[in-house]
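Co-fold these.
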Amino acid sequence: MSTVAAAKASGRRTLGCIALSILGACVGLLFLIPLWWTFVNSLRPGGDTFRYLNPLQWETFFTMTPSLDNYAELLRSNLGLAMLNSIFVSAATVVIGLGICSMAAFALAAIPFRGSGAVFVVVVVSFLIPFDAIAIPLADLFRDWNLQNTYAGLILPGLGNGMAIFLLRTFFLAIPKDLVEAGRLDGLGWWGIFRRIYLPLSVPSLIGAGLTLFLFQWQSYVWPLLNGTDEQHILGPIALSNLQGQFNVDYGVMFAGSIVLTVIPLAIIIGFQRYFIQSVTTTGLK
Amino acid sequence: MAVPPVRRRRRASLVAVAAAFLAPALISLIVLRLAPAAVALWESLFRESFLRGGTVFVGFENYADLFGNADFNNALLVTLVFSAIVNPLQIAVSFLLAVLYTRKAAGAKVWRSLVVLPIAVPPAVSAVVWSVIYRPDGLGNSFLDLLGLPAQPFLTSPQQSLASIMVLLSWIGVGYWMLFLIAGINDVPNELYEAASIDGASAWRKLWSVTFPLVRRPLAFVLVADTVSNFLIFAPVQILTKGGPSGSSNLLMYDIYTRAYTLGDLSKAQAEVIILVLLTLAVVALQFRLLRSSDAA
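Predicted complex below.
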């Protein structure tokens, strides 16, 4: 290849790289705008939400006088209690759900018992039925069982998660069976093998499954709307959407609530990024 | 078959141990997932009787009534139109973005994470934020004004309500599906691209003939998972449009909700739940076919 042609090709490549960078940046910023605008508006009084919109100006997206008043107001309002409820319900779901799901995954992966195939079919079928679709018949059952407007009623449906069981089982299957034999020789029972051998070796997949359980609960809307709307048990997303429907909306507080409901899962996803990507790819590709 | 008593006892005890480990999960899956579906199926075959009190068995009459009901047929049509547009759109955008952000370019990782950022936004929060963007005096019309376009009614127009919902869903969805496709693209061996380059293939040609066929598997998964999740859209409809204007955004999940709670017709709502579950199961069954054929290829 002559030097002229090579220079031309590399020139075209640089040009292409610049074009791709600009395109990538524009798309990225486009996706950021709604969230950034929400964030900026949460830092200024609700009355100013529509002040800088017509025409668009730099103050639409920036404020020189940020204040946390909306967040303080949020803490005092019912929305604050709703956020606390969301945190409590999600945390309980993760802790109890991880226990339940990892035990089931252990039985399916490590214990050679008759009927394990049939049990696995039940697990798969149960996660093929989308939860939101059966939420209305389930809400009807929960009314009969007096579980409406209780924390138990909000937490229970999130506990048994077919996807989490599936994820953990995939990971547990990769643990060598020799370790089970060695554990048995050392006098460990099945519970000991589970607690002392499997759980400590599976921290990454436990985090991945915990994220699945957490996001299921944190993002849910249909179920808490059907099952827990009294003032004491209302969850964040429901309280926020109630606010939106009111005649006199304080947009500042509404945006602050939106930011809190987003930042909590965001911080958790970023903190456990590696495990999140891993669980995403495992569910997708295996 | 004669099994020595010791082994038989060991086997029985294994079942007991496994049952103890499995019980909490199995009970919750059966009671909270399978039972409600079974209850819906059972109750969809009955109807409340005012004459005799209680319920009477009516067979598939609830289903027949639904398919003769204009509102239900409209909801079914809206849902199918919605699926036929939103799924190809989201997947095409996710795929192109995945390709864009796996190329060598300045700051690709940073811009990519900005696209992924909205996946943390719960659907209800996305709906609330966009309700302000879509207001006549909101951010949406400010941008149209900047581009010299006339103001649009968005949610209050029967022609635009469904599209407006698609936009806010894509904002939180595209980044999520993109993650799967990026993982798929990164699995494509680099030598294949180099070989294609030596053969003088153009960038488009490489995209179509190398990347596209090799990410078929994650694409098939994303297609099905996206379709299932889009069958279940509820929060934006309930928060933004209540299915309107004039039924233009009345997706099945919201139709079930109004049938059960506003109209109070629980048995027909249960029949509709069954129709929705069957619809999603059909899509999932299709996934297994797709994945199997891509394995064979």
